[in-house]
Write a structure and sequence with these properties.
alpha/beta, 19% strand, D-Maltodextrin-Binding Protein, domain 2
Amino acid sequence: MSTKRFQFGCLALASLLWSVPGWAGSPIVIGTGGASGVYLPTGRAICQLYQQATGATCRALPTGGSFYNANSVRNGDLAFGIVQSDVQYAAFEGTAQFYDNGPSPDLRTLFSLHAEAFTVVAKPADIREFDDLLGKRVNVGNPGSGHRATLNALLAVKGKTEGAFALASELKPEDMTRVMCSGKLDAFFYVVGHPSQAIEEATRRCGAHLVDVSGPDVAHLIEAAPYYSVTVIPGGTYANTPDDTTTFGVRATLMTRSDVDDGDVYRLVKAVFENLEALRRSHPSLATLTAAKMVREGVTAPLHPGARRYYEEVGLLPVEE
């Protein structure tokens, strides 16, 4: 066979392969969270949409949560991760738990997801506000979790540390309800979208209730940080909490790095936004997602060029000059 005929044959084969669904995108892995949270089912739903649209493999990887995912994306161990917007901001700017690492200016956002409320769930009836937890047995969360990072930010504003609690256990979300119901914990903290299976179980199984997290310290925290806002969990969402619960919160975001392939990011974003109704139906916490908010709220690192290209094409963002 001549060299020219061989080269033509290779080009023809490559063209054929890239024209079938299995070659429309690269295999990807998304870091998510624990079994009882919202990140894992959200990641699985995103992967399903990507696979249906491209034919390529996508895996939602269970992980320790936001800090683990942000660190793994920053280090190159993962290409994609779901994280809290405050953790993403800290990783990008090199603040808080990422201070020793310094800024990571190559981190990028694809889109934001559901709102996540800093939620306090307590069993004793006399715990009605956050400061009632001081000296109590609480679960601060597993190392690498976003809810632990948010708790520590709140404690810092109050001039406190985790040492202010009689017990600061490091249980994963899938274990904290069981331990509370056994009488070994007074409360746990969880930054999560609502309704949450873990919180539903705690309120119904062992009579727990939600606790307000408000006051001057929280107001100062919200004023000082671009990613926090007042959040209200409607009364009646859970047993034993008939009134609205006022707290603060962030948004979940899907993050990556600037060196991740533009085409893969574009196809992933396109698959999600062209099937947004399917994503909304996949979990109650995602039911109120809107395209406009996903592009603008909780975006605490610059948009990836592949994501921006899609948003500009469909008119969600103005075309950059």
